[in-house]
Amino acid sequence: MTIVPLVTAAYMRGEQENVKKQLNDVFQVLLFITLPACIGMSLLAEPLYTVFYEHDPAGIQILAAYAPVAILLSLFSVTAAILQGIDQQRFTILSLLLGLLTKSVFQMPLMMWMGARGSVMATGLGYTVSVIFAMIIIRKYANYNFSVILRRTVLMLMLNLAMAIVVLLAYYGFTLFINPESKFGSMMLLILCGGLGAIVYSYLSLRLRLFDKVFGPRAAAIRRKLHIKA
């Protein structure tokens, strides 16, 4: 969100290329951080929920389903801020209303079909509609092409898939001798599996130069310190 004022400043000065660069930075940083965080929360919903509350299968299922919706929530927040930054505030309200309408239409049918998770799905659909509409407006009024972000997102999803496989294998391995129903066991699982997932994602990002594309030349210095070849 701290990058958004830079987008506003560049737009007000009429610096089209700088606007595109700043938007690329906004979306790349957002997705680079939120994708692994939310996917990790969903994968480790059982120990995460147990640490903060108690071991409850219903609560764990809802957390696992709701965690990915946070990705859409973050995108909604950023796109809404960008719309204000490019002086299209009226579309921010319309985007919100479209999302609320979508959620209202699908809430009851999905709850009847899926129970409590149906409400989560309806919320996700609402955010999806809002985000897609906001992106269409950004593309039109900021003359912004999302092709770069789409390519980066595909690469991020591939790295997250690799991270998810490692985390799941580690989780099922550790649960053979660590009890996920106890708070101490859950804390240990979060530290071990979460830490392993963070290491895998960070290593692959540096190795495949995704880190360079998101955070710039500082990645080269990190690679040298960690002796990672790209």
Write the layout of secondary structure elements.
Elements: H1 4-12, H2 16-43, H3 45-52, H4 57-66, H5 69-85, H6 89-114, H7 116-141, H8 147-174, H9 183-207, H10 210-215, H11 218-226
SS class: mainly alpha
In total, the number of strands is 0
The shape, in one word, is flat
| Helix content bin | over 70%
Task: Give the integer mean of the pLDDT values.
Answer: 88
Count, helices: 11
Compute the gyration radius: what is it?
Answer: 20 Å
Can you describe what's shown?
- It is built from eleven helices and no strands.
- It is an all-alpha fold.
- The chain has one domain.
- Helix 2 runs antiparallel to helix 5 and helix 2 runs parallel beside helix 8.
- The chain is flat, with a radius of gyration of 20 Å.
- It starts with a helix and ends with a helix.
- The model has no long low-confidence stretch (mean pLDDT 88).
Q: In summary, what is this structure?
A:
With 230 residues, the protein is an all-alpha fold. The protein has helices at residues 4-12, 16-43, 45-52, 57-66, 69-85, 89-114, 116-141, 147-174, 183-207, 210-215, 218-226.
Main attributes of the structure:
0% strand; 11 helices; mainly alpha; flat
